[in-house]
Design brief:
alpha+beta; 13-stranded antiparallel beta sheet; 7-stranded mixed beta sheet; 8 helices; 20 strands
């Protein structure tokens, strides 16, 4: 089948929408005609703290609810398949062999291929969340190009209760201004006092309502398997740094946009915390840190490094809130991963690193629960 981006829903309008909600409603109108979809996508898989690129084909239908995916990666990732229909997932597991499992939800993630399939089914066919969108739970970010197309990047906030625990999240959607179809998506989740960001998925080609035969959702009995060299795990599970390590010689930008070395900002006992303006636990951590006697007296220096957002948003927050910290910015802060976050091992925020006066790491941790627990960590208790 030849894949091409479908422009059947184009209206010719190229202007910025009045709001995120109007962009989402335009997308809903475009999606009303979509009963099935076949996508060519690109993304990244997190392998032991290292992001490996992949490409994949994803097929999905709204009614009946089905998805199928074939994922192909670099030398670190075997070709993988996943298919969901009814209450059954077929997928390739160990050694590429086909396995079948009954699952309670279509969101069961049994291999790398199932993750983008689930996200893209939700993006195209979980339309109740779009119908429930309001001015209060949506926000407009900015215009950005994806695959050479001008898109409006919007955020959709959602909450869900599972097993008596509340999970919150923000789904970022890049909506094509001409077709009003989604061209990329990125999910940020909040749970247990921490925020985590999944790698961005980019849709390179879209086929709307394709004709498939009965074998279109089949998973082969055996997928090709390569002899791969898996990445060695030399770091602890929280990230690439371990106690005793010196701060890496990496660039950050100050509020005046001057580039300096992160390690040059470590003067005396210093807490380096990675954060973003949209991250509730990060803001809670900042408020608690600002009340610590050690911070008020200057015995503990705080360097707050903004990431996973735009420089404009990070600078605006720092200038507005006036916390007694040294604010810095990841030079590649809008990326799902950057040289700085990848080297430091930052995949969820807030992620704090406590350095001694000698510039070596004492401890680090992810998430924020309350001020009392934070004080104990800062004081090494």
């Amino acid at each position: 089948m030849t894949f091409a981006l479908i422009f059947a829903f184009a209206t010719g309008a190229q202007a910025q929408p009045d709001s995120a909600l109007s962009a989402i409603r335009a997308m809903m109108t475009a999606l009303e005609r979509v009963e099935s979809v076949e996508l060519q996508i690109a993304g990244e898989v997190n392998l032991v703290g290292k992001l490996e690129p992949y490409t994949a084909t994803v097929k999905a239908t709204g009614t009946p609810m089905r998805y199928w995916a074939k994922l192909e990666g670099t030398e670190q990732i075997d070709t993988e398949y996943a298919s969901f229909s009814g209450a059954t997932v077929s997928y390739t597991g160990d050694a590429g062999k086909r396995e079948v499992r009954e699952v309670p939800t279509y969101r069961a993630l049994l291999n790398h291929a199932s993750a983008p399939a689930v996200q893209l089914w939700q993006l195209f066919f979980d339309r109740d969340r779009y119908r429930n969108a309001t001015e209060e739970n949506t926000f407009y970010v900015f215009a950005e190009e994806v695959e050479g197309r001008t898109c409006d990047l919007v955020g959709l906030v959602s909450t869900e209760v599972r097993n008596d625990e509340t999970f919150a999240g923000v789904t970022h959607i890049w909506i094509d201004r001409e077709t009003h179809l989604p061209l990329a998506t990125h999910r940020v989740s909040f749970a247990r006092g921490r925020a985590g960001a999944a790698p961005k998925i980019v849709i390179r080609a879209t086929s709307i309502n394709p004709a498939w035969d009965d074998s279109a959702f089949d998973v082969p009995e055996q997928a090709p398997v390569r002899t791969m060299k898996r990445p060695e795990v030399e770091q602890d599970v929280l990230g690439n740094m371990k106690p005793g390590d010196a701060c890496p010689d990496l660039d950050v930008q100050q509020q005046d946009m001057q580039t300096v070395k992160l390690k040059s900002l470590i003067k005396g006992r210093t807490l380096v915390s990675f954060w973003a303006p949209w991250c509730g636990p990060c803001i809670g951590e900042m408020k608690a840190l600002s009340e610590l006697p050690e911070v008020k007296s200057g015995a503990l220096r705080v360097v707050a490094v903004g990431c996973f957002d735009s420089k404009q948003n990070i600078r605006a927050f720092a200038e507005r809130e006036k916390y007694p910290f040294m604010f810095a910015i990841d030079p590649d802060c809008e990326a799902a991963t950057s040289v700085l976050t990848k080297t430091m091992g930052v995949s969820a925020i807030p992620h704090a690193y406590l350095f001694g006066a000698d510039g070596r790491l004492i401890d680090h941790w992810i998430g924020f629960q309350d001020g009392e627990e934070l004080a104990k960590k800062v004081r090494g208790k």
